[in-house]
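User: Some background: our group keeps a shared notebook of sequences we're curious about, and every so often someone picks one and asks for a predicted structure to add to the entry. Today it's my turn. The entry only has the sequence so far, pasted here. Could you supply the structure so I can complete it?
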Amino acid sequence: MRQSRITIDVSLDEKNIPDQILWNATDSTADNAQKARAMMLSFWDGADKSALRMDLWTKDMMVDEMADFYYQTIMTMADSFERATHQPELVEMMKNFAKDFYGRFRDIQLKENKL
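Assistant: Of course. Here's the predicted structure to add to the notebook entry:
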């Protein structure tokens, strides 16, 4: 059986806040570890029927980047859900939510920047 390994290294500051996130994978075409400002990792525990999650972001992650990250994550989750369930109506709901979420974020940012 073939195996693949994904490694995530998180450097913390003196207050245990992520300062740097580096990741690499044995199947990646990149020669060196890749930097990331944020990450979301989810596992499904079939025995407990619960999701186990780890969300981390570095202190240099900007608010607008976080909104982009969430928007793109929700959109790709919708795509994955479609491949797994073949439920186009639910997928469309997820994508509409993501678009509405991002639009509202942008509206809030514009209002805050005018103040």
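Suggested note for the entry: The beta strands are 6-12, 18-25, 34-36, 38-45, 50-57. The helical segments are 63-85, 88-114.
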